[in-house]
Design brief:
The complex is a heterodimer of chains A (332) and B (264). Chain A is built from 14 helices and no strands. Chain A is mostly helical. Chain A has a single domain, classed as Orthogonal Bundle (ABC transporter involved in vitamin B12 uptake, BtuC). In chain A, α4 runs antiparallel to α7. The radius of gyration of chain A is 20 Å and the shape is globular. Chain B is an alpha/beta fold and 264 residues long. Chain B has a single domain, classed as 3-Layer(aba) Sandwich (Rossmann fold), CATH 3.40.50. In chain B, 32% of the residues lie in helices and 30% in strands. Chain B is built from nine helices and 13 strands. In chain B, a hairpin with a 2-residue loop joins β5 and β6. Chain B is globular, with a radius of gyration of 19 Å. Classes of the chains: A mainly alpha (332), B alpha/beta (264). At the A-B interface, α10 of A face α2 and β7 of B.
Amino acid sequence: MKSNLRYSLQITVALLVLFLLLLMSVRYGSNQTSAGTVFNAIFHYDPKDIDQRIIVSIRIPRVLGAMLIGAALAVSGALMQSVTKNPMADSGLLGINAGAAFMLTLCFTFFPKMSTLNTTAFSVIGAGISAGLVFLISSLKKSQMSPTILVLAGMAISAFFTAISEGVAVVANLKQDLAFWHFGGISAVSWAQLTRLGPWIIIALIVVYFMSSNLNLLSLSDDSIKSLGKNILSIRLLALVCVVILSGISVSLVGAVAFVGLIIPHIAKFLVGTDNKKVIPMTVLLGADLTVLADLIARTIDPPRETPFGIIISLVGVPFFIYLARRDGNQI
Amino acid sequence: MNIIETKKVCVNYDKKLTIHDLSIQIPKGQITTLIGPNGCGKSTLIRTIARLLKPCNGSVFLDSENIEQKKTSEMAKEVAVLPQSSDVANDMTVQELVTFGRIPYRHRFSSLSKLDHEKIDWAMEKASVQDLADRHLSTLSGGQRQRAWIAMAIAQDTDTIILDEPTTYLDLTHQLDVMLLIKELNEKEDRTIVMALHDLNHAARFSDQLIAIKNGFLQKAGTVDQVITKENLRNIFNIDANIVEDHGKPMILSYDRWRSGESA
C-alpha cells in the first residue's frame, strides 16, 4: 500500500511538471507573450490578434506535438528494451529511423515540391517497410522473433537503408536538407499533422498500457512464457507493431531523436520499480516532460534562431547514458 | 494409471534427430526421473512432453489426450514447467516472480483474485521463500533463487510439475533442500513429478520410476531397482559402478571408467 501511495505521488508530480511546462512552452518563445494573451488565446480566441494567432496556430500544435512525440519515443524505447531483453535497446534497432530517412531522401530527391504533410506520410511508410523487413527476417527461422536475431536483422536492414539514402543524398546534393532532420526539430508540427497522426499515437499508447502485464512476462525465457500458457509470438508482435506506430510517426515528424527512448524508461524504472503497469504511465509522462522541456530550451536559448532540440536531448542524454553503462557494468 | 505417455516420438532439434522412436509411460502421482549422459536427449524429451517442442513423428498424450490438440492456455493449468536456464528476470522480486504462476488463471484485464493471493502465499510458504518475498532475484543465492522458481511452478497449481535439472549449480545442501521440497510436493500435495537429473544417487533416492536414455534411444525404464544395476550403468554411462544399498535404495559408492576386457 505504501508503494502505491508513493507511486500516486510520483505520477501527480510528473503530471504537474508537464502541465507547468506546457503552459510555459505556450507562453515563451522567440516572441514573448503575456499570460493574459495565452489565456485569451485559449478561452476567447480572437483571430485578429497576431500574438493570439501565433499561439493557436503555431505554438499549441507544436507543444502538443512535442508532448505526444516525447511520450511515444519513450514508450517505444521501453517496449524495445522489454522485447529484446537489452537495456540499451531503442526503436532505432528496428530499422525505423533508417527506413524513415530513406523515404524522406527519396521524396526530397524526386518530388522536391511535396508538402510536409505528404513527406511525413511517406516516411511513416518507410519506417513501416523497414520494420516489416526486420520482422520478416526474424520470423523466418522458427525463432519466434528471438531477441538476438531481431537485433541482428535490425542492424542489417538499418545499414542497408542508410547506405542507399546516403548514396542518393550525395548524388542529389541533399546533405543540407537532411541535416536538420537528423538533428531533430519540432518546429514543423502543424494542426493538420497533429490531427492526422496524433490519434494513432494515443491509441497505441492505450494498447501498450493494457498489455503491460504481458510485457512483464517478456523478462522470462521463451520456455517459461509458453509453459505459463501465453503465446510469445503474439505478445512480441503486438509490442513491435506499437513500436512501429509510435516511433515511426515520431521519427517522421521530428527526425531521428536519440536518447529519449533510451533514458526515459530507465529513469521511470528507477522511480517506480520494474512492474510495467507503473513503468509505462511514468515513461509516458517523463518522456513528455523531457521533450517539451528540450523544445522549450531549443526555442529560447538563442532567439530568434532555433537550436535543434535533438542536440539538447543528447547533451542531457549522453552523460546519463555513460552513467547507466557504468552502473550496469559494475553489476557484472 | 499413466498421466503422460509418449508413443513412438521422434524429435528434431537443430536439424538433428535427437530422439528416436521413444515410447515411455509416466505414472500418475509418482516421481519419474530421466537419466542419461549429457546430450542424450533428456532436455529435448522434457521439452517435448511439456509441449515446448513439437515431435516430428509420434504423439505425446496427457491424460490420454493428444497434447497437440490442447491449447497452450489449457496445458498451463495441467502442467507446470521449470526450464533449465532460469537465469533471467533478475531485476524482479520473488513475489513478482511467484505471481507469474497465476497467469494461466487470470482473465485479460482482471487483477489478482483472493484465490490468487492465497495460492501465491501458499506457494511461497511451501518453498520457504515467504521471508524473501520483497527481495530481488539478483540478490539471492543460487539455492534461494531456485526455490523461488519452484514456488512459481507451485503457484501454477498443476497436477504435474516438470523440472529440468533443478539442482544444477547448487551446493550439496541446497541440492538436498530442493530434492526434499520436490519429494514433499509429491507426497503431501500428490503432484506427479517428472524431472531430469544428473546425480544418480539423488535419482535413486527420491524417484519411484527411472527412465534411462542414451543417444536419443530409450535404454531402460522401470523402478529404481530395475534400472540402477551394474550392467545398466555400464550400458548407459560406460562406467563400472560399485553399487551398495542404503536405506533400501541402491547407491553408487564409487565408479570408474569401464574398460572392455576386464570382467564386469
